[in-house]
Amino acid sequence: MQEQLYNILSDSIEFCHTFEAKYYTFLKKAGFKKRIRKSRMELAEILTILIFYHFSGYANFKKYYKNFVLGELKNCFFLVSYSQFNKILCEIPCLLDVFLKSRFNLTSMYHFIDATCLPVCHIKRAKSNKVFSKAANKGYSTIHQHFFGFKLHLVVNHEGEIVNYAISKGSPHDVNYLVPLTKNLKGKLCGDKGYISEEARKKLARQNLKLLTPNKKNMKAKTIHQGSEAKMLQHRSIIESIFNKLKNVFRITSHKSRSVTGFFAHCLSTLLAYTFDSKKPSVALP
Fold first, then answer.
1. Range(s) of the domain holding residue 90
2. Which of 24, 42, 100, 280 can bridge 160 by disulfide, Cβ–Cβ 3.0-4.6 Å?
3. Tell me: the pLDDT tens digits for 189-224?
4. 137 — phi, psi (to 5°)?
């Protein structure tokens, strides 16, 4: 546990060392801050606290911060109160996004794509939800049926490493994010029947990325896959295993966010925590 904390902290310090000056300049130009007043806490400490929460065993971030952070880390970090830390969270999602993208592995030639729902409340309470009334909407999932919230679109490689991601409202179809998420990728991409699109297939072919999908029963021209392609289709459930880990181990859907920025900070810190996990689902491919 201490080793994991050290690994997260060391990587966060290395990232923030080169990014911190650009980050504060961005906050000022974007209008988030008129003048820069640095928090007592370092950016690397904020990142470490958010990411390590998913390894701590706590199911409630407030208890985690008050009991573990203020108790165990008070002699190591320059800490602020829980209420002040919540205010800092409003500026953090863009920092988490850049840190996450800096950890992507874009060298693989074998990729898998899929999407999963991120409900924010029960579908019956959708109309009374005020926090996400404008940001989220109703969607449909073959597993969870109708839901109210967002969708997490994920591209991973055969070693279980994240290649790209997107978080959308619940209503857009998965195929809408097929081309944007796979820009600059090469090799082979495996998805389910929801990604069958001749137009998208041609666009991906221009960038040397071959789209592999199962055949529908009513398809006239069925494709026969062999070798590594057939193996990829057999093991496309690897991405379902990753979604299962994100939801049941890192608790990406177990949140009590009272703001949209808090929700995105929680989701991005969960994805970052997954990148530090040493036991990722993987498939042996040539």
1. 2-101
2. 280
3. 999 888 988 899 999 999 999 999 888 776 666 666
4. -155, 180
